Predict the structure.
Amino acid sequence: MSELRDGGVPEQCFICGQLALGLMGQDFYLAPYMLGQDRSFTDDRYGYCHLRCLQESGLAGKWATGVSDHFCERWPDYIELDDGDRRVHASFPARSLTLWSVEGWFATIPFGFLRTSGVEAAAIEPLPGKRLFAVASVVGFVNGPYEAIFGDLRGGRQREIDLVRLLDEIGSLDHVLEPRLLTGGRIERVPSDNAALDDEYQANHLLEVADNVVEASASLINRATGWKRRRR
């Protein structure tokens, strides 16, 4: 969790300047250390970005190519899909998966997402060949940057707030890649997994994943079971 706090969500999108909450599948953190020697296309702009802004900027493919080697070196346990256009990387110690695609869509998701199918509760239907999952994104922290945007959640006067309404209020709704996946999304204040840290603001929303990505994820998670046994 401390790594997420170092990321400082919410943070201004380095492309449009509006706040990015760090929503899983909608925003991503891109750092200079992920790139090789050629960083000229970045104009020295890094950090969180809305994935819609990244794709509309024309830089998505360059970032995808630029971070590809880093992803493979950092997470060498991966499965390639669609003739190499997509990969699912596993971090066994962190129990997380990082998704990479040639068109510049990235996401880091916990192993447990496979147990949280959102189809039954969702107000929308998945696109053909895809599945819906209910996920939770850490979007801020008590005493963290931009905490004021969470309004009455701060003092406990509200138990939850509407995610779409908040994005509209801060001017970021038009920068969401897949707005329909945020339908019915809520933000709540929850205790941190680390008792020494302040409470977190958590957004509950949907993530849509291709069937073959789901299958590859399940395969990698099964590998993690064997990895854990070998570590004992």
About this structure: The CA atoms of residues 155 and 189 lie 10 Å apart. Helices lie at 2-7, 51-56, 60-74, 163-169, 211-231. The mean pLDDT is 90. The first strand starts at residue 11 and ends at 12.
